[in-house]
Write a structure and sequence with these properties.
homodimer; alpha+beta; Uridine Diphospho-n-acetylenolpyruvylglucosamine Reductase, domain 2; Uridine Diphospho-n-acetylenolpyruvylglucosamine Reductase, domain 3; Alpha-Beta Plaits; 4 domains; 7-stranded antiparallel sheet; 5-stranded antiparallel sheet; 17 helices; 18 strands; 37% helix
Chain lengths: 452, 452
């Protein structure tokens, strides 16, 4: 197989070097690394097509790999085979400012795209924290702090180019803002984690950089008060751009790591986007509303530097928390619930965490009903692992019971596979049929999303 | 077969009465009516399941029918069989104000839903003009005047209950605002026009009724100036709630039908939603911007009654235009384009219309890149029909050539079937595979979306 790959790829595109294979054996999760048999560096769509043809011929798994920032083991080649590195496909092919659209290759990172967009006064809003690749973000339906205002990847991908396991290249979606023509296939590939096809091109929505951005911090006596305040704000329709809950342990991690001195109490970080006048009104309404919900302080970060520092702090919250426990790894829960169920779900997580004999912190994209519990574990200690997994399971089953989902944004990968049937019930069978239809030999990231 | 149907349905639920069959033989389009063999009035999900089992057994088509307001022949049973009337499933099952969600049966109309939501201070925004059923709106991915602000059905359906041709009932989607769990199946059924399953339940997003709503009318010397002005507004991110272009012929129709006296020149109708203060600023910015683009008058409709009258007028624009030509029927084009391509596409349509020897008017949801040309034809005159279809084809091919879609909101039905392969290219094959997978006997609305 490797000989066949090198027949059409240059020598440096095909590697069995142990350290290169090691780099492609893991992501940022706690899941056990597995070495691929070979790493292939794709430079073009036609490379991907040919790799697929060879892989099908030899019935060898193909696992797309990009920034490696996934959190549930998506990019780990658990059945070996080819790790298909997409980071060489990193061209921004077209920026169409008048259409608020860009056409990119999958290895472009979100920071690289935003850097290129800046001179047009545009930005791409989806922000999972990590400097992930846009192909990987589409493959997991990534979202993050700005989703409350701008939506997840699903709302911001207008069209995709995908290489199917048959080697066929298809384009799905339309550059038009809406369409009632044919079946909507784009959403099927978004969040499919490389199990239905390999994304080789993306057309994404971009937005004008807001005239003004203002950040604020609000503190609350109890975590539950913070959740109640944010759900009340969602009810008003005030267009907050970010609204993030952090618990005292998360703030402590940030202070430790970023040398900030934020009060170590339950806090909501806000960001507002808009014109100067409309923002002043929005912020005033938010202040009134959260004061009613028991907010004890509301600090507006007036200057750009303070605003950036606040969001840098929020972005690194998991890393920061972990930095206090050298040598430990993270297990992060990721449930998302209907808004009305969020307060009880967070309260439940908070109580379970207090009973748990592991360091943990809570942080959440509460405007979307999504929150995380970050646990620091010793991956070599089976007892830690077992406790963390049992905790995760309690959080997941509670969320599904309340009408929510086991993963709001991190994806299924290996970690959420066992909850797919419970969450999706009767539609899980249809998902399996789609997988079988598009990948009859089960070579596309086998063992992810759909159990094999 | 009819005997088997009456075994589990009450007598009045199964009808072969000629006038009832005639009522279910057509929609609001120019497409040739075809009588179903039998009309079944579904009262529950279990009725639908049993009808499906009988239909599969006898290999008889099942064509869902609701308000009958479709514009491309979707509900016409072109291969005979069962017209499955869903209007008896008209219960609003649950209103969850804290989640901004409602659970409805498919026969609930959008006006009935909005009536029920009013006392909660909520509304459902998708507004195709007609008082369509919500099941039918999901089945065609309906949109309309408010889509520029609130999205189409695709953005506002969170979860669906669907009866498959196997008789299996599945739920797709999640009540959570976002999810990265499993494949996104909801979007596959939205816009599938009853060809993949029958929708028996919907969970929809609803919104708080805006504090203030203001309407305005802006006039322009040329249609193209109006298009340019609206695309410029889209660039600023000002959150207009509606932005509708109408040409002089469309305004003339409205004046004739509604006894208004709007100036019969190219006009853009606006609606703004928000707080009183933010609206004042938005409107002022819009006024400045469109003045630069050559706007010759800008009239704000201050009171509620004038606002309502304006949108009533816009809603009936096709009926109003047609009312001037008694006995004629409408053929309406429905292309949607990337914003930058819209001015040339409208200009092209305008020129073609001037050369065409048929009465016609242009109206468009220009903020989305979607516009309609309404033609009044004599359906019994083959010459009219041929001219109108040739015109439609020119508009469609021009839109596809410019990166757009053959139908922005009306759907494929019978009228856009022949453009599916051209528009979707290589992904059309995947659409066919999905159809075959879910409906192996081709009994679900056969001959629509996918050619059989």
């Amino acid at each position: 197989m490797i000989k066949e790959l090198t027949a059409f790829l240059s020598e440096e595109q095909v590697s069995v070097n142990p350290s290169i294979r090691e780099q492609h054996s893991h992501d940022e999760s706690y899941h056990t690394p597995v070495l691929p048999d070979v790493v292939v560096f794709a430079k073009s769509r036609s490379d991907v097509v040919k790799v697929m043809q060879v892989a099908v011929k030899h019935r060898v798994p193909v696992v797309p790999f990009a920034a490696g920032s996934s959190l549930e083991g998506h990019a780990i080649p658990i059945r070996g085979g080819i790790s298909l590195d997409m980071m060489g496909m990193d061209k921004i092919l077209e920026i169409r400012p008048d259409d608020f659209l860009v056409h990119v290759e999958p290895g472009v990172t979100r920071e690289a795209l935003n850097e290129a967009l800046k001179k047009y006064g545009l930005f791409f809003p989806v922000d999972p924290g990590a400097n992930a690749s846009l192909g990987g973000m589409a493959a997991t339906n990534a979202s993050g702090t700005t989703t409350v205002r701008y939506g997840a990847m699903k709302e911001n991908v207008r069209k995709l180019e995908v290489v199917l396991s048959s080697g066929e290249v298809i384009e799905v979606g339309s550059l038009a803002a809406k369409s009632s023509s044919g079946y909507h296939l784009t959403e099927l590939f978004i969040g499919s984690e490389g199990t239905l096809g390999v994304i080789t091109g993306l057309w994404l929505r971009v937005y004008g950089i807001p005239e003004t951005m203002v950040a604020a911090r609000a503190t609350f006596p109890r975590l539950e008060d913070g959740v109640a305040a944010t759900t009340a704000i969602m009810g008003t329709g005030i267009p907050v751009a970010r609204m993030e809950l952090v618990d005292p342990a998360a703030v402590r991690g940030v202070n430790f790591y970023k040398k900030t001195n934020y009060p170590e109490i339950p806090t909501v970080f806000f960001e507002f986007h808009g014109s100067r006048e409309s923002l002043a009104q929005d912020i005033e309404r938010v202040r009134e509303m959260i004061t009613e919900e028991g907010c004890t302080s509301f600090a507006i970060e007036h200057n750009e530097e303070e605003r950036r520092r606040l969001w840098e702090a929020r972005h690194v919250v998991a890393h920061a928390f972990l930095a206090q426990y050298p040598g430990k790894r993270q297990i992060v829960t990721d449930v998302c619930l209907p808004l009305s169920a969020l307060p009880q779900a967070v309260e439940n997580a908070h109580k379970l965490l207090e009973q748990l004999d592991l360091p943990g912190a809570i942080a959440g994209h509460v405007g979307d009903g999504n929150f995380h519990t970050i646990l620091a574990i010793d991956p070599d200690n089976p007892d830690d692992m077992q406790k963390a997994e049992a905790f995760n399971e309690q959080i997941v089953l509670d969320a599904i019971h309340r009408g929510g989902t086991c993963t709001g944004e991190h994806g299924v990968g290996s970690g959420k596979l066992k909850y797919q049937r419970t969450e999706h019930g009767s539609s899980y069978r249809m998902m399996k049929s789609i997988k079988t239809m598009l990948d009859p030999f089960n070579i596309l990231n086998p063992g992810k999303v759909i159990a094999d």
